[in-house]
Amino acid sequence: MRVFITGGTGLIGSAVVAELLGRGHTVLALARSETSAQAAEKAGAEPIRGGLADLDTLRTGCDRADGVIHLAFGNDFSSAEAVARSVAEEGAALATLGEALTGSGRPLVTVSGTPWVPGRPSTEADPVPTDGPVGGRGRSVMSVLGLAEHGVRSTAVRLPRTVHNEGAGGFAGLLTTIARRSGVAGYPGDGTQRWPAVHARDAAVLFRLALEGAPAGTCWHAVADEGDRVRDIATVIGRRLGLPVESVPAGTYGPLGPIFATDQPASSAHTRQALGWAPTHPSLLDDLENIHP
């Protein structure tokens, strides 16, 4: 299968590209810079120059592909306005991808986040939030899944709060970055809130499985660790960096503060049973041991 992928040179995307190529697929990778284009080419993909806002380029990628995986996102969480811009850009891109694939029967795999449900781990049957700082992403995903009724084999892989590789990535990676800057390995509240996690290479396998055969209109949870306590995550970060571990105000994390403070474990039992997905790579707490002082 020839696969068009957005975000193919990031931490998650590079793992997805390697997984696809390793299973005999060919890859067209959206590349917004010369550096990204070179990285895609080095990985074995064919770069298509353009960014997520280049809608004509997205249409061209769809026209040349048997299936599409969408991973790109602005990832600027510096302010509520920056998050809103990234959400709006992604929404327009997904609408364009969906329109280009309508009636074709081809797969479109998009990315989402695991929802949170008070009192229990969320499951694949729970809806994603459509309000709050990133609620627009949830609305865009629901629109993509709705394309199942319009001749698109659309699916969503829901990623946990931390997708990691070699100690980097996700919310845990943000905690590490902030710890280096502030001199404190911090966590919001009492730190007992739980975050799910997955190794990027395990997540990549699930994206491939969804692309190859997941039914239209379905959601899947790329969750290996159902829920690590944030205080435990900060403790490893603090030990690896030689920094004190302390509770800090949720406002330390800007617009993501309320999300950081939320208990949000997630289950992947249905995904494992239905698609045969079986994570094999290190857990988050083990992988954080790769952080260098």
Could you explain the architecture of this structure?
With 293 residues, this protein is of the alpha/beta class. It has 2 domains: 2-162 and 197-225, Rossmann fold; 165-196 and 227-265 and 282-290, Alpha-Beta Complex (UDP-galactose 4-epimerase, domain 1). Helix content is 41%, strand content 20%. It is built from 11 helices and 12 strands. The strands form 3 sheets. Strands 3-2-1-4-5-6-10 form a 7-stranded parallel β-sheet, sandwiched between helices. It has a 3-stranded mixed β-sheet with strand order 7-9-11. Strand 5 (107-113), helix 5 and strand 6 (153-159) form a beta-alpha-beta unit. The N and C termini lie far apart (42 Å).
Keywords summarizing the entry:
7-stranded parallel beta sheet, 20% strand, 3-stranded mixed beta sheet, 2 domains, Rossmann fold, UDP-galactose 4-epimerase, domain 1, alpha/beta, 12 strands, 293 residues, 11 helices
